[in-house]
Amino acid sequence: MVILGIESSCDETAAAISVDGRKIVSDVVLSQADMHALYGGVVPEIASRRHVEGICAVVEQALQKAGCALDDVDAIAVTYAPGLIGALLVGVNYAKGLAFSTGKPLVPVHHIHGHIAANYIAYPDLTPPFCCLVVSGGHSLLIDVRDYTDMKVLGSTRDDAAGEAFDKAARVLGLPYPGGAQIDRLAQNGNGQAYRLPKARIEGAPWDFSFSGLKTAVINTVHTAAQRGEMLDREGLAASFCAAVTRELVPPAIDAARYCGYGKLAVAGGVAANRVLRQALQTQCREQGIALYIPPAKLCGDNGSMIACQGYYAYQAGIRGDTDLNAYATLAADAPQPIL
Fold it and tell me: What is the count of structural domains for the chain?
Protein backbone atom coordinates (compact mmCIF):
# COMPACT_ATOMS: atom_id res chain seq x y z
CA MET A 1 0.00 0.00 0.00
CA VAL A 2 1.42 3.39 -1.05
CA ILE A 3 1.02 6.29 1.40
CA LEU A 4 1.90 9.94 0.80
CA GLY A 5 2.81 11.57 4.12
CA ILE A 6 2.77 15.36 4.62
CA GLU A 7 4.24 17.15 7.64
CA SER A 8 4.06 20.90 8.39
CA SER A 9 3.62 21.21 12.16
CA CYS A 10 6.50 23.61 12.82
CA ASP A 11 9.39 24.81 10.64
CA GLU A 12 9.96 21.91 8.25
CA THR A 13 7.85 21.32 5.17
CA ALA A 14 8.14 17.61 4.51
CA ALA A 15 6.68 14.87 2.35
CA ALA A 16 7.47 11.20 1.88
CA ILE A 17 6.22 8.09 0.13
CA SER A 18 6.01 4.79 2.02
CA VAL A 19 5.11 1.30 0.89
CA ASP A 20 3.29 -0.75 3.53
CA GLY A 21 4.38 1.69 6.20
CA ARG A 22 7.96 0.74 6.89
CA LYS A 23 9.55 0.93 3.46
CA ILE A 24 10.35 4.56 2.65
CA VAL A 25 10.97 5.15 -1.03
CA SER A 26 11.33 8.94 -0.90
CA ASP A 27 11.69 11.59 1.78
CA VAL A 28 11.95 15.34 1.13
CA VAL A 29 12.40 17.96 3.86
CA LEU A 30 12.49 21.71 3.25
CA SER A 31 13.97 23.28 6.37
CA GLN A 32 13.34 26.85 7.45
CA ALA A 33 16.12 26.83 10.06
CA ASP A 34 18.25 29.48 8.31
CA MET A 35 15.32 31.89 8.17
CA HIS A 36 14.31 31.45 11.81
CA ALA A 37 17.93 31.62 12.98
CA LEU A 38 17.79 35.34 12.21
CA TYR A 39 15.26 35.70 15.05
CA GLY A 40 16.67 33.14 17.48
CA GLY A 41 13.65 30.86 17.21
CA VAL A 42 10.61 29.95 15.16
CA VAL A 43 8.38 32.86 14.14
CA PRO A 44 4.94 31.27 13.57
CA GLU A 45 3.74 33.67 10.88
CA ILE A 46 6.94 33.29 8.87
CA ALA A 47 6.75 29.51 9.25
CA SER A 48 3.20 29.46 7.87
CA ARG A 49 4.13 31.59 4.86
CA ARG A 50 7.15 29.44 4.06
CA HIS A 51 4.99 26.32 4.18
CA VAL A 52 2.60 27.91 1.67
CA GLU A 53 5.53 28.73 -0.60
CA GLY A 54 7.11 25.28 -0.48
CA ILE A 55 4.51 22.60 0.05
CA CYS A 56 3.59 22.01 -3.60
CA ALA A 57 7.20 21.62 -4.69
CA VAL A 58 8.03 19.35 -1.74
CA VAL A 59 5.16 16.97 -2.50
CA GLU A 60 5.96 16.94 -6.21
CA GLN A 61 9.61 16.20 -5.48
CA ALA A 62 8.65 13.34 -3.12
CA LEU A 63 6.52 11.79 -5.86
CA GLN A 64 9.24 12.21 -8.46
CA LYS A 65 11.92 10.65 -6.24
CA ALA A 66 9.62 7.70 -5.59
CA GLY A 67 9.02 7.31 -9.30
CA CYS A 68 5.26 7.41 -8.91
CA ALA A 69 2.29 9.63 -9.73
CA LEU A 70 -0.66 10.62 -7.59
CA ASP A 71 -2.67 7.87 -9.27
CA ASP A 72 -0.30 5.35 -7.68
CA VAL A 73 -0.95 6.68 -4.16
CA ASP A 74 -3.53 4.76 -2.12
CA ALA A 75 -4.01 7.29 0.70
CA ILE A 76 -2.82 10.72 1.84
CA ALA A 77 -1.66 11.10 5.44
CA VAL A 78 -1.15 14.50 7.06
CA THR A 79 -0.18 15.87 10.46
CA TYR A 80 -3.23 17.58 11.93
CA ALA A 81 -2.15 18.06 15.57
CA PRO A 82 -0.40 19.27 17.64
CA GLY A 83 1.85 22.12 16.50
CA LEU A 84 1.78 25.73 15.32
CA ILE A 85 -1.80 26.22 14.20
CA GLY A 86 -1.00 28.30 11.12
CA ALA A 87 1.65 25.85 9.98
CA LEU A 88 -0.63 22.86 10.55
CA LEU A 89 -3.45 24.46 8.59
CA VAL A 90 -1.24 24.76 5.52
CA GLY A 91 -0.55 21.04 5.45
CA VAL A 92 -4.09 20.00 6.41
CA ASN A 93 -5.78 22.19 3.81
CA TYR A 94 -3.33 21.14 1.10
CA ALA A 95 -3.90 17.47 1.92
CA LYS A 96 -7.67 17.93 2.01
CA GLY A 97 -7.64 19.57 -1.40
CA LEU A 98 -5.38 16.86 -2.79
CA ALA A 99 -7.54 14.07 -1.36
CA PHE A 100 -10.79 15.67 -2.56
CA SER A 101 -9.51 16.30 -6.09
CA THR A 102 -8.08 12.79 -6.50
CA GLY A 103 -10.69 10.83 -4.55
CA LYS A 104 -8.01 9.40 -2.27
CA PRO A 105 -8.67 8.60 1.42
CA LEU A 106 -7.44 11.28 3.84
CA VAL A 107 -5.72 9.99 6.98
CA PRO A 108 -5.12 12.44 9.87
CA VAL A 109 -1.97 11.66 11.88
CA HIS A 110 -1.12 12.86 15.38
CA HIS A 111 2.36 14.36 15.35
CA ILE A 112 3.50 12.44 18.45
CA HIS A 113 2.32 9.17 16.92
CA GLY A 114 4.42 10.07 13.90
CA HIS A 115 7.56 10.55 16.00
CA ILE A 116 6.98 7.17 17.62
CA ALA A 117 6.54 5.60 14.17
CA ALA A 118 10.07 6.70 13.21
CA ASN A 119 11.16 3.68 15.24
CA TYR A 120 9.23 1.34 12.94
CA ILE A 121 11.27 2.63 10.02
CA ALA A 122 14.57 2.25 11.85
CA TYR A 123 13.68 -1.13 13.37
CA PRO A 124 11.57 -3.26 11.00
CA ASP A 125 11.11 -5.94 13.67
CA LEU A 126 9.75 -3.56 16.34
CA THR A 127 6.05 -4.00 17.09
CA PRO A 128 3.85 -2.75 19.92
CA PRO A 129 3.46 -3.00 22.82
CA PHE A 130 6.37 -0.99 24.21
CA CYS A 131 7.07 2.07 26.35
CA CYS A 132 8.21 5.23 24.55
CA LEU A 133 9.99 8.37 25.74
CA VAL A 134 9.06 11.27 23.43
CA VAL A 135 11.31 14.32 23.75
CA SER A 136 11.00 17.15 21.24
CA GLY A 137 10.82 20.93 21.04
CA GLY A 138 7.30 21.08 22.41
CA HIS A 139 6.80 17.73 24.12
CA SER A 140 8.26 15.57 26.88
CA LEU A 141 6.14 12.45 27.34
CA LEU A 142 6.22 8.89 28.54
CA ILE A 143 3.74 6.80 26.57
CA ASP A 144 2.49 3.25 26.86
CA VAL A 145 2.24 2.24 23.20
CA ARG A 146 -0.29 -0.59 23.44
CA ASP A 147 -0.87 -0.81 19.71
CA TYR A 148 -0.11 1.28 16.64
CA THR A 149 -3.01 3.65 17.35
CA ASP A 150 -3.83 2.77 20.97
CA MET A 151 -1.68 4.77 23.38
CA LYS A 152 -1.80 5.94 26.99
CA VAL A 153 0.14 8.91 28.33
CA LEU A 154 1.95 7.90 31.53
CA GLY A 155 3.73 11.17 32.20
CA SER A 156 4.32 14.58 30.66
CA THR A 157 6.00 17.90 31.31
CA ARG A 158 4.41 20.31 33.75
CA ASP A 159 5.96 23.36 32.08
CA ASP A 160 8.72 23.62 29.46
CA ALA A 161 9.57 20.68 27.24
CA ALA A 162 13.15 19.43 27.07
CA GLY A 163 13.60 20.74 23.53
CA GLU A 164 12.41 24.20 24.50
CA ALA A 165 14.89 24.25 27.37
CA PHE A 166 17.66 23.33 24.94
CA ASP A 167 16.75 26.20 22.62
CA LYS A 168 16.58 28.76 25.46
CA ALA A 169 19.85 27.57 26.99
CA ALA A 170 21.53 27.71 23.58
CA ARG A 171 20.32 31.27 23.02
CA VAL A 172 21.77 32.55 26.30
CA LEU A 173 25.05 30.80 25.45
CA GLY A 174 25.15 32.73 22.18
CA LEU A 175 24.54 29.67 20.01
CA PRO A 176 22.47 29.89 16.82
CA TYR A 177 19.06 28.30 16.31
CA PRO A 178 18.28 25.39 16.34
CA GLY A 179 19.91 25.16 19.73
CA GLY A 180 19.76 21.46 20.53
CA ALA A 181 22.31 20.35 17.96
CA GLN A 182 24.57 23.31 18.81
CA ILE A 183 24.62 22.50 22.54
CA ASP A 184 25.27 18.85 21.74
CA ARG A 185 28.36 19.78 19.73
CA LEU A 186 29.63 22.27 22.32
CA ALA A 187 29.14 19.77 25.14
CA GLN A 188 31.49 17.22 23.54
CA ASN A 189 34.47 19.27 24.74
CA GLY A 190 33.10 20.06 28.20
CA ASN A 191 33.00 18.61 31.70
CA GLY A 192 29.50 17.47 32.60
CA GLN A 193 30.20 18.20 36.28
CA ALA A 194 31.53 21.73 35.77
CA TYR A 195 28.31 23.35 37.05
CA ARG A 196 25.75 22.20 39.60
CA LEU A 197 22.30 22.51 38.10
CA PRO A 198 18.96 21.79 39.81
CA LYS A 199 17.02 18.56 39.56
CA ALA A 200 13.22 18.69 39.61
CA ARG A 201 10.85 15.96 40.73
CA ILE A 202 7.08 16.22 40.90
CA GLU A 203 5.70 14.87 44.17
CA GLY A 204 3.21 12.12 43.54
CA ALA A 205 3.96 12.08 39.80
CA PRO A 206 7.26 10.22 39.28
CA TRP A 207 6.86 10.10 35.49
CA ASP A 208 6.17 13.81 35.00
CA PHE A 209 8.88 16.29 34.06
CA SER A 210 9.76 19.93 34.74
CA PHE A 211 12.44 21.83 32.85
CA SER A 212 11.62 25.47 33.61
CA GLY A 213 13.86 25.56 36.69
CA LEU A 214 16.76 24.01 34.82
CA LYS A 215 16.35 26.48 31.96
CA THR A 216 16.27 29.41 34.41
CA ALA A 217 19.35 28.11 36.24
CA VAL A 218 21.38 28.14 33.01
CA ILE A 219 20.20 31.66 32.18
CA ASN A 220 21.06 32.88 35.69
CA THR A 221 24.48 31.22 35.59
CA VAL A 222 25.39 33.03 32.37
CA HIS A 223 24.04 36.39 33.58
CA THR A 224 25.78 36.10 36.97
CA ALA A 225 29.12 35.37 35.34
CA ALA A 226 28.70 38.40 33.05
CA GLN A 227 27.75 40.71 35.94
CA ARG A 228 30.72 39.59 38.03
CA GLY A 229 33.12 39.77 35.13
CA GLU A 230 33.96 36.08 35.49
CA MET A 231 35.03 33.78 32.70
CA LEU A 232 32.22 31.44 31.67
CA ASP A 233 33.11 27.86 30.82
CA ARG A 234 30.70 27.56 27.89
CA GLU A 235 31.70 23.99 27.04
CA GLY A 236 31.36 22.95 30.68
CA LEU A 237 27.96 24.60 31.05
CA ALA A 238 26.70 22.97 27.86
CA ALA A 239 27.93 19.57 29.06
CA SER A 240 26.45 20.13 32.51
CA PHE A 241 23.13 21.09 30.96
CA CYS A 242 23.05 17.96 28.79
CA ALA A 243 23.90 15.86 31.84
CA ALA A 244 21.12 17.55 33.85
CA VAL A 245 18.50 16.96 31.15
CA THR A 246 19.62 13.36 30.96
CA ARG A 247 19.23 12.97 34.74
CA GLU A 248 15.68 14.27 34.43
CA LEU A 249 14.71 11.94 31.58
CA VAL A 250 16.44 8.60 31.99
CA PRO A 251 15.36 7.38 35.48
CA PRO A 252 11.62 7.97 34.87
CA ALA A 253 11.88 6.38 31.43
CA ILE A 254 13.55 3.27 32.83
CA ASP A 255 11.04 3.12 35.68
CA ALA A 256 8.07 3.48 33.31
CA ALA A 257 9.48 0.82 30.99
CA ARG A 258 9.82 -1.59 33.92
CA TYR A 259 6.28 -0.76 35.05
CA CYS A 260 4.86 -1.51 31.60
CA GLY A 261 6.66 -4.83 31.65
CA TYR A 262 7.20 -5.12 27.90
CA GLY A 263 10.98 -5.21 28.13
CA LYS A 264 11.19 -2.58 25.37
CA LEU A 265 11.87 1.16 25.52
CA ALA A 266 11.70 3.34 22.39
CA VAL A 267 12.79 6.97 22.18
CA ALA A 268 11.47 9.58 19.75
CA GLY A 269 11.67 13.29 18.97
CA GLY A 270 14.42 15.77 18.17
CA VAL A 271 16.09 15.64 21.60
CA ALA A 272 16.62 11.90 21.06
CA ALA A 273 19.52 12.89 18.79
CA ASN A 274 21.48 14.20 21.79
CA ARG A 275 24.57 12.06 22.28
CA VAL A 276 24.74 12.34 26.07
CA LEU A 277 21.13 11.19 26.38
CA ARG A 278 21.58 8.34 23.92
CA GLN A 279 24.66 7.04 25.71
CA ALA A 280 22.98 7.17 29.13
CA LEU A 281 19.92 5.34 27.84
CA GLN A 282 22.07 2.66 26.24
CA THR A 283 23.96 2.13 29.48
CA GLN A 284 20.88 2.01 31.72
CA CYS A 285 18.86 -0.21 29.40
CA ARG A 286 21.74 -2.64 29.10
CA GLU A 287 22.06 -2.82 32.89
CA GLN A 288 18.30 -3.29 33.33
CA GLY A 289 17.91 -5.84 30.55
CA ILE A 290 15.61 -3.58 28.52
CA ALA A 291 15.75 -3.56 24.73
CA LEU A 292 16.35 0.02 23.56
CA TYR A 293 15.18 1.50 20.25
CA ILE A 294 16.41 4.94 19.13
CA PRO A 295 16.06 6.11 15.51
CA PRO A 296 19.07 7.60 13.72
CA ALA A 297 19.39 11.36 14.09
CA LYS A 298 17.88 12.06 10.65
CA LEU A 299 14.61 10.42 11.78
CA CYS A 300 14.48 12.16 15.17
CA GLY A 301 13.46 15.56 13.79
CA ASP A 302 10.24 16.33 11.92
CA ASN A 303 9.98 14.49 8.60
CA GLY A 304 7.44 13.11 6.19
CA SER A 305 8.59 9.50 6.55
CA MET A 306 7.25 9.18 10.07
CA ILE A 307 3.86 10.57 8.97
CA ALA A 308 3.68 8.23 5.98
CA CYS A 309 4.60 5.29 8.20
CA GLN A 310 2.06 6.09 10.93
CA GLY A 311 -0.47 6.96 8.23
CA TYR A 312 -0.33 3.36 7.05
CA TYR A 313 -1.22 1.99 10.48
CA ALA A 314 -3.84 4.70 11.05
CA TYR A 315 -5.43 3.75 7.74
CA GLN A 316 -5.49 0.10 8.76
CA ALA A 317 -7.23 1.13 12.00
CA GLY A 318 -9.96 2.95 10.07
CA ILE A 319 -8.84 6.47 10.98
CA ARG A 320 -10.08 8.90 8.34
CA GLY A 321 -10.61 12.60 7.74
CA ASP A 322 -12.88 14.42 5.33
CA THR A 323 -13.32 18.00 4.15
CA ASP A 324 -14.31 18.97 7.70
CA LEU A 325 -10.94 17.93 9.13
CA ASN A 326 -9.45 20.71 11.24
CA ALA A 327 -6.00 21.35 12.72
CA TYR A 328 -5.37 21.60 16.46
CA ALA A 329 -2.52 23.39 18.20
CA THR A 330 -2.85 21.11 21.23
CA LEU A 331 -4.17 17.57 21.42
CA ALA A 332 -3.26 14.83 23.88
CA ALA A 333 -1.33 11.91 22.43
CA ASP A 334 -3.98 9.55 23.79
CA ALA A 335 -6.98 11.54 22.59
CA PRO A 336 -9.54 9.64 20.47
CA GLN A 337 -8.69 9.62 16.77
CA PRO A 338 -11.30 10.46 14.07
CA ILE A 339 -12.81 7.29 12.64
CA LEU A 340 -15.31 7.63 9.80
Answer: 2
Question: 3-state SS string over 46-101?
Answer: HHHHHHHHHHHHHHHHHHHHHCCCHHHCCEEEEEEECCCHHHHHHHHHHHHHHHHH
**pLDDT grade, residue 340 (50/70/90)?**
low
Residues 172 and 110 in one domain: no
* Cα–Cα separations (whole angstroms), residue 148 to 105, 168, 300: 19, 33, 18
Quick one: 161 and 250 in the same domain?
Answer: yes
Rounded distance between C-alpha atoms, residue 329 and residue 339, angstroms: 20
Work out the end-to-end distance of the chain between its first and last CA atoms, rounded to an integer number of angstroms.
20
- Give phi and psi for 213, each to the nearest 5: -65, -40
Report yes or no on 332 lying in a domain: no
CATH code for the domain in which residue 50 is found: 3.30.420.40
Q: Give the pLDDT confidence score for residue 203 in this predicted structure.
A: 86
Domain of 286? 128-297
Query: Per residue in 143-184, pLDDT tens?
Result: 999 999 999 999 999 999 999 999 999 999 999 988 899 999
> 47-80: buried (b, 16+ CB within 10 Å) or exposed (e) per residue?
bbbbbbebbeebbeebbeebebeeeebebbbbbb
* DSSP string for 120-178: HHH-TT--S-EEEEEE-SS-EEEEEE-SSS-EEEEEEBSS--HHHHHHHHHHHTTPPSS
